[in-house]
Amino acid sequence: MRKATIITASIASLALGGCIQVKAPDKPIEINLNVKIQQEVVVKLQRDAQDLIQNNPELFPQ
């Protein structure tokens, strides 16, 4: 009984082993992070401009 189970399991594993295929994609994977980077740059520039105006009021008279 135990021998039959081992033989059956080995035959099943050989049969299923040929079904798995790994294939590389045709196109490269593209990760677009431009939105996050642009938002950070805008916030940093806005803070820098605000600091410049507050620290140098003579440059921007009202």
Set out the fold topology.
Elements: H1 2-17, H2 34-55
Structural commentary:
It is built from 2 helices and no strands. The chain has 62 residues and is mostly helical. The protein has a domain at 31-62. The radius of gyration is 32 Å and the shape is rod-shaped. The model has no long low-confidence stretch (mean pLDDT 77).
Give a quick set of tags describing it.
2 helices, YnbE-like lipoprotein, 61% helix, YnbE, 62 residues, mainly alpha
Distance between the termini: 96 Å
How many β-strand stretches? 0
Shape: rod-shaped
Instruction: Please tally the helical runs, counting DSSP H or I stretches of 4 or more residues.
Output: 2
Mean pLDDT figure: 77
Return the structural class: mainly alpha
SSE succession: HH
Quote the beta fraction.
under 5%
Note the quaternary state here: single chain
| Low-pLDDT residue spans | none
Largest sheet: none
Percent range of helical residues: 55-70%
Rg over alpha carbons? 32 Å
Protein name: YnbE-like lipoprotein
Pfam families: Lipoprotein_19
InterPro entries: YnbE
What is the structure about, briefly put?
With 62 residues, the protein is mostly helical. It is 61% helix and 0% strand.
